[in-house]
Amino acid sequence: MMMTRTVTTFATVGVLLLEKLPLVSSNPAYQFLIPNGDSVFHNGEPWPAVGHAAPQGSPIFNPFGVDFRAATRTWTVELCQMDSDGDGLTNGEELGDPDCVWTPGDVPTRTTNISHPGLVESTEEDDAEAEAVDGSSQTTTAAATEQLELPSWLVVHIACMMLSWGLVLPVGAIMAISFRGAGFAKNGVWFQLHVGIQILGVAFSIAGFVVAFTNIVDHFKDVHHVMGTVVFAGGLAQAVMGFIRPYKPKKGESATAMRTVWEYCHKGFGRIIIVLAWVNIFLGVKLVKNFFAGVPKENTSTIFNGMNAILGIQAALCLVLTLMAIFVKTKDDGQDQNDKENGSDGDMKHTTRPQDDDDDDEQASA
Length: 366
Description:
Blueprint: H1 2-17, E1 41-42, E2 45-46, H2 63-70, H3 77-81, H4 91-95, H5 124-134, H6 140-147, H7 152-178, H8 189-213, H9 223-243, H10 257-291, H11 301-327, H12 335-342
Antiparallel strand pairs: 1-2
Helix pairs in contact: 1-10, 1-11, 7-8, 7-10, 7-11, 8-9, 9-10
Protein name: Cytochrome b561
Subcellular location: Membrane
Keywords: Electron transport, Membrane, Signal, Transmembrane, Transmembrane helix, Transport
């Protein structure tokens, strides 16, 4: 119980520290591989992460970023002559190299009035012209919002990971920590629920990781990517440990060294992984907020309301976990439960089992 309260405290502190972490996924070195790369603006706002969908960097690339990557991050004549954002101006014209002669280290032909090659600029003249034609004003914000839509793979990734680590796996952990008494202890009901819930959570985690890993080329470029990989690997390790747990001694017997090590690793590591996962979810939320920087709230309310709802559930689970660790008494049904784990004849021939007992605070969280 003390361990649970300690972990909860660290989780709260970790979340409070997130606002201090730099989450820029752009690479400043790339600015010097394109003309005026450090002087790009979009609608009057500095945009240092030229190839990204958010000014300070994001997991998503804008059209110019996609073309730049396809050109192996090299300013070629072909890339210069392309019109990545479809605004009628070539990338070279927007970046001050209209003749496509610039090479790294040179001074571009033009160093002023640099526009963004991957996002359409909107001017007052454009708005006035559009309003005169169809009676509506195509604002800069609307144009930007249309371009900044989360790709479907990222939506799937967010949904899977928030369901897995933000909801399902913590619930499974609570079943192992606090639901061993009352009606849940009989016939190992708590354990059956624990295993089933954790398997579902791990499945969501695998789906979320695979869809992100196969759609992002530059892995491990920011804290979220690195921590996400660590959490995913730790989750799989937890699942494996849950299925290969050593024999549990009966009452009056001493635990083997292997069982003792397993309990410390499985319980402690499980708590740590869940805390890291929660921290990483907040990091991911911050990346999404950076992605939609400058977009009116009414245009992003749906996704943020959904994410806030999941985060609220996480906070509630954190509170429930703490309260249960403090107030809920666990129950030891003794020999019967040991017999269920180790075999009805009480021998020691089973080293892995589909059903566990009510070992205090056991947690097979992924």
